[in-house]
Every structure is written in C-alpha cells, then in structure tokens.
Specification:
Order of helices and strands: EEHEEEEEEEEEHEEEEEEEEEHHHHH
Helix content: 25-40%
Distance between the termini: 68 Å
Family: Belongs to the TMEM43 family.
Membrane topology: Multi-pass membrane protein
Number of domains: 2
Strand content: 25-35%
Subcellular location: Endomembrane system; Endoplasmic reticulum membrane; Nucleus envelope
Organism: Zapornia atra (Henderson crake)
Keywords: Endoplasmic reticulum, Membrane, Nucleus, Transmembrane, Transmembrane helix
Number of strands: 20
Length: 397
C-alpha cells in the first residue's frame, strides 16, 4: 500500500515468521540472563562509587568554602594570593572578535557556533505484532517526511530509498569557534573554565546583508535555496549562536558577567585540587556571592547523586528481571499461571533491588559515616520483611 499526502509518504509492510518453539524461547531467555547478570553487576559499581564520589565532593566543597578568598578588585593581580583559592565576579572580555568570513559575520564573544541544517527525507517506523494462524506477524508502517536536520540522514538505510534519496554530505559544515584568550578583569580563564561558558543564544541576523548572490536571508537564517519558502531536498539553512558576550554591543547589550572560584596562578585562574582529591574550578553566569556559589554546587552534587542512585536501582531491577525471566518462559503456555508468575517476579525484583541498593549505598558510606551506613543497612531489610509479611502463614496441622 502506498499513499502520498504533500511531502509525507507512507507504505505498510507485513512480515511473518513461525511462532518460536519452547527451546528457541529458552535459548533467547538464556541470552537475556547473561545480559541481566552484566547489568546486575554494573549496578553495584554505579551505586558504590557514586556514594564515595558524592561524599568526597561534599567534603571538597566544604573545604573550599573555608579557604576561599573574595578578591577586592579584578583589575590588579595580588601576589599574596598566589596558589590560593579565590572568588571574583566581573564582565567577560576577549582580545579579538570571532569571525565567520563566509557570511560576513563577526561578534565579540567567547564562543561562536555556526549551525548548518539540510532539508532531508526522514523515515519513521511504527510496528505492531499479532498472532494469526499460528504465525507471528509484524505490520510495520513506514512514513517519510522532509525536515531540516543538523546531521546527514543516511537514506541507504531506508526501507524504500527510491523517491527518498538524501545527499551524502553537506556543502557547508557546522563549526564552533572559541576565543583563545578569555579574561575577567586582569585574570585569564583556563580552558576548563572557558568550557563552562555554554549558555548559547541565537544571533539575530536582521542587521546583516545577504553575503552571496546564492544565499538569501530569511528571519535568523541564511538559506542556500532558490525558494526558502518551498525548500527542496539538499537545500541548506545556516544559523548562528553565541555564548559569553565579551564586549558592549549596540544590538546585544553589555558584556556578560560571570562569577569564578578557582586557584590563582600568576594572572591565570586554574583548577584547585582539594585534600579529598577533587577539583574545584567553578564558573556561573551573573554576580554571585561565595555562599551562593557553593550552595549551587551542593545542590548540583545532590541532584547528580540521586540521579545515579535511581539509575543504579533501575539497572539492578532490570538485571534481576532478566535473570529470573526463565521462570516466566517455563510457564508461558498457561495464561493464568503466566500472569501470576509475571507479577510475582516483578515484585521479587522490586524488593531485592531495593534491599541490595540500600545495602550497597550503606557500604559506600561505611568509610565516611559508619553510623549512617549502619542505619541504611538496617533499612535495607525492610523491603524483604514487608514482602515476607504479605505471605499467608501455613495452616496449623
């Protein structure tokens, strides 16, 4: 079946295969068990190392807060602060503007990004499976639409390339230019600090002229197209983004201000290594006090810690589910029994994953906070106790 609605095209393909036998399903389950074992073991590593990392980071931040020295001025370098952790805030500055000569564009900023998109065919799949006459049938609906994409879409992988062929490369490439010398007052920022300046904003092109005869400006894009309103496959559009405005601009405003906490080395701001082995090299947009900077860092550490805890628990749950899947395979011929076993296996995986996750977290705290580690270890028994209490007692003989 084939239909064409504007630039969107669709067709449906139906494939069938014989229903897998018991041995074949058992073999697939065995492969899943191996993958589950790897995921299960990986979850222990994620959970255990995450706790140590979180506690080391918290200690490093506390150490940094107790040692940091707010600078009175950013326009002179004091030798008394050599090698010490300092806090300063000020406007960004760069020695030279960043250029893109191909489009006649320049801006005084820390970073300038050229983003190139090509109008291409994109394939989407929507599959459904059903059983019919003892066979497993898979109905796949393929739809094709033309869209602007930053990456080249390989049309050779399409189910139907005929009529949906994309160019193999873009005539114009994307790139990001970074200023080689970024300063706040008299202090030069290290590469690690410059990397943290990534709040990109789209650059308005309303004040620029068309750079070439074959390039047309429309809104905030340069189009390589005969008709930007009705682009064809292979046409390009180019947009620009900047981060860290480092000079006063009549259209964009004043230079961006940043707050930095780092080690002073001469007139450079570089990474500070704490006694816990962590690195302090902090940069935030805006003018923040010392307390505000370290509060944000503690909040970021907390969010990262809980995200990795959730990821570790999920990996353990999935691993246990895959390893116990064989019990479901053994009874999947019986619908009612199969559903009950499936519910029981998920409950088992949930309880065991919760208990083992808490136990692993407690081991991660053992070397740092033994009392909390003991409390969490005791808490890890709760899911098992709750699950056991749900089992009805045996009738007395």
């Amino acid at each position: 079946q084939f239909s064409d609605t504007g630039s969107r095209k669709e067709h449906v393909k139906v494939t069938s295969e014989s229903k897998p036998g018991f041995l074949e399903r058992l073999s697939e389950t065995s492969g899943g068990m191996l993958m589950g074992l790897v995921t299960f073991l990986l979850s222990f590593y994620v959970l255990f190392t995450n706790e140590g990392r979180a506690l080391r980071t918290a200690r490093s931040l506390d150490e940094g807060l107790s040692l940091v020295i707010p600078l009175d001025t950013i326009h002179s370098v004091s030798q008394q602060n050599e090698g010490r952790l300092v806090h300063l805030a000020g406007a960004l500055s760069t020695s030279k503007p960043l250029f893109d000569p191909s489009y006649g564009l320049s801006i005084q900023a820390v970073k300038l990004k050229r983003n190139v998109e090509m109008y291409q065919w994109v394939e989407y799949e929507d599959s459904t499976e059903y059983e019919e006459n003892g066979e497993i049938k898979k109905e796949t609906k393929y739809s094709y639409n033309t869209e602007w994409k930053s990456e080249v879409v390989n049309s050779r992988n399409f189910d139907r390339e005929i009529g949906h062929k994309n160019p193999s490369a873009m005539a114009v490439e994307s790139f990001t230019a970074v200023s080689p010398n970024v300063q706040v007052g008299s202090f030069v920022l290290s590469k690690g600090l410059v990397d943290k300046i990534d709040d990109f904003k789209q650059l308005s092109l309303s004040n620029l002229e068309d750079p070439h005869a074959d390039v047309t400006r429309g809104g905030d894009y340069f189009y390589h197209s005969e008709n930007p309103r009705r682009p064809e496959v292979g046409d390009l559009r180019v947009s620009f983004f900047y981060a860290g405005l480092s000079g006063d601009d009549p259209h964009l405003g004043s230079a961006d201000k940043v707050t930095v906490v780092a080690r002073q080395r001469g007139n450079q701001l570089v990474a500070y290594h704490t006694k816990s082995g962590e690195v302090l090299q902090i940069l935030y947009p805006g003018d923040l006090s010392v307390e505000e900077v370290f509060q944000k860092e503690h909040e970021s550490n907390t969010m990262k810690t809980w995200a990795l805890r959730a990821a570790g628990w999920l990996a353990m749950f999935v691993g246990i589910s895959l390893m116990t899947r064989i019990f479901y395979t053994l009874v999947d011929w019986f619908p009612v029994v199969r559903d009950l076993v499936n519910i029981g296996l998920k409950a088992f995986a949930f309880c065991v994953a919760s208990s083992l996750s808490l136990l692993t977290i407690s081991l991660g705290w053992l070397f740092y906070r033994p009392l909390w580690a003991l409390l969490i270890a005791l808490l890890s028994v709760v899911p098992i106790v709750v699950a056991k209490s749900r089992v009805p007692p045996k009738k007395q003989q």
